[in-house]
Amino acid sequence: MGNALAKPLGIAASGHKETSNAARIMLEQGGNAFDAALGAMCAACVCEPLLASLGGGGFLLAQAAGKQVEVFDFFTQTPSAPHGELDFYPIQADFGTATQEFHIGLGSIAVPGVVAGLFAIHQAHCRLPLGQIIEPAVDLARKGVRINALQKFISEILQPIIDATPAASALVKPMYSPGRPAEIGDLIANPDLADTFEALASHGPKWFYQGEPGRQLARDCAAHGGLITLADLQRYEVIRRRPILLESHGARISVNSPPSPGGCLIAFALSLLDKTRLSDGAWGDAQHALALVTRNMRWPWPVLCRQQAWCARNRGWKLN
Length: 320
What we know:
Layout: H1 17-28, H2 33-47, E1 58-62, E2 70-74, E3 89-94, E4 99-104, H3 114-125, H4 130-133, H5 135-143, E5 145-146, H6 149-157, H7 159-162, H8 166-170, E6 187-188, H9 191-203, H10 205-210, H11 212-224, H12 230-235, E7 239-241, E8 244-248, E9 251-255, H13 262-272, H14 286-297, H15 301-314
């Protein structure tokens, strides 16, 4: 991302160049890595709307200069409403070589955490005002962003979800030809999302969780087969956790801690490579890929599950 700068400021990787560019803008304006991460997260809600949303959740593995590593857990939480007649049904996502079943509908959604995470991380680590961090996302949402090949591919996989509601299909309709799905190079916009970002910057997270957005979500769930209540939204909290710390091939690594399984799976995969000389081949070459495959294929799925459970109990390393 530093190819147009006299001195590279950092690296941002994402599913759309404008998402990464939002991070770049934050760094150019004097922000730190946390400003850049939040700028990119907000922009992703515009540029990658099928993968990122203010209605979703996430994690941030964070280490500020001179401080301990910590995990910000702002993943979605299980709602508390009693099960009644749910809007909850399966669809098939076609990946070309395989299909996978997902369940969608209002009964499938959980209590969103992205907004709470945005404010918690900003308060703890950011340098720039939140109004400045959201500016690239607001600009993209109003002026439009061009669909790239990856986002078009994802929209084809998730077509049954897009077709489920008019609101979902509107996310991938061209600005100037709303009667058809967007193709590569078409502009898509979301001015309502721009207004939402600006309201968040002005009013804070309580506006989202206790104000009209949260109340509308709770009303929709109550009327149309969802589970989220206003009390669920008002109780939501970001959890700051200690990460799992491990060593592999001479490097000290911090990964996400339970209840998220991702860090444990990374730790276990690295344990399988303990006796593999990764330096003998370049990253991503045939030898590297073969080492990953052959090592992992020696372990049946039940063993992987037991190792993950061990990691969850002990919150530590080393897995053997």
